[in-house]
Specification:
Elements: H1 2-34, H2 44-76, H3 85-134, H4 136-232
Transmembrane segments: 214-232
Membrane topology: Single-pass type IV membrane protein
GO molecular function: SNAP receptor activity
Length: 233
C-alpha cells in the first residue's frame, strides 16, 4: 500500500514536472518571438518551482527505493515461501515502476537543464548583440577619431624623418666643407711657410745688386779720377 501510494504521488509529480519543463520552453520561445529586447530568463519563479519539485521527486524516489528494499528483505526472509510467484511478480513490478519513474525524472530534469542552459547562452548572446547595436554609433565615432589620430601620428613621423634626413645631409655637407677648409688652410700654411724663404732670397738678391752697384760705381769713379789726373799732367 505504501509503495502504491508513493507511486501514485510520483506519477502526479512527474506529470506536473514534465508540464513545467514544457511550459518553460514555450514561455521562452514566445517571449523571444514577441520582443527582441525582452530578457530571455526573467522567470525566476519557474526556476524556483523546478528546484522545489525536483527535490520533492527525489525524496519520493528515495522513499520508494527504501520500501522496495524492505519488500525485498521480506521476500528473502526465512518465514516466506521461496516459491511464491505472485509475491516475486509484485516485487518485480514495483522495481520496474521505480526504475521507469527514476529514468523519466532524470530525463525530464536533463531536458530542463539543457533548455535553461541554452536559453542562458542565447540570452547572453542577444544581450551582447543589443549592447553592440546600442554602442555602434559611439564605436564608429571613436574608430574615426582613432583613425584620424593615427593619420596625424603618421604625418608627424614622416615630417620628423624628413627633418632628420635634412639634418644628416647638412651634417655631411658641413663635414665636407670642413675638410675642404682644412685642406685650404694647410695649403695656405705651406705657402706662408715658403714665403719667408722667398723674401730672404729676394732680399739677398737686392743686397747683391746694391753691392755690385756700389762696386761698379766705385770703380767708375776711380777710373774717372785717374783719367782726369792723367789728362791734367
Amino acid at each position: 500500500k505504501q509503495a502504491r501510494q508513493l507511486e501514485n504521488e510520483l506519477d502526479l509529480k512527474l506529470v506536473s514536472f514534465s508540464k513545467l519543463c514544457t511550459s518553460y520552453s514555450s514561455t521562452r520561445d514566445g517571449r523571444r518571438d514577441s520582443s527582441d529586447t525582452t530578457p530571455l530568463l526573467n522567470g525566476s519563479s519557474q526556476d524556483r518551482m523546478f528546484e522545489t519539485m525536483a527535490v520533492e521527486i527525489e525524496q519520493l524516489l528515495g522513499k520508494l527505493t527504501g520500501i522496495n528494499d524492505k519488500m525485498a528483505e521480506y521476500t528473502n526472509s526465512a518465514g516466506v515461501p521461496s516459491l511464491n510467484a505472485a509475491l516475486m511478480h509484485t516485487l518485480q513490478r514495483h522495481r520496474d515502476i521505480l526504475q521507469d519513474y527514476t529514468h523519466e525524472f532524470h530525463k525530464t530534469k536533463a531536458n530542463f537543464l539543457a533548455i535553461r542552459e541554452r536559453e542562458n547562452l542565447l540570452g547572453s548572446v542577444r544581450k551582447d548583440i543589443e549592447s553592440y547595436k546600442s554602442g555602434s554609433g559611439v564605436n564608429n565615432r571613436r574608430t574615426e577619431l582613432f583613425l584620424k589620430e593615427h593619420e596625424h601620428l603618421r604625418n608627424s613621423d614622416r615630417l620628423i624623418e624628413e627633418t632628420i634626413s635634412i639634418a644628416m645631409a647638412t651634417k655631411e655637407n658641413m663635414t665636407s666643407q670642413r675638410g675642404m677648409l682644412k685642406s685650404i688652410q694647410s695649403k695656405m700654411n705651406t705657402l706662408a711657410n715658403r714665403f719667408p724663404a722667398v723674401n730672404n732670397l729676394i732680399q739677398r738678391i737686392n743686397l747683391r745688386k746694391r753691392r755690385d752697384s756700389l762696386i761698379l760705381g766705385g770703380i767708375i769713379g776711380i777710373c774717372t779720377i785717374l783719367l782726369l789726373l792723367y789728362a791734367f799732367h
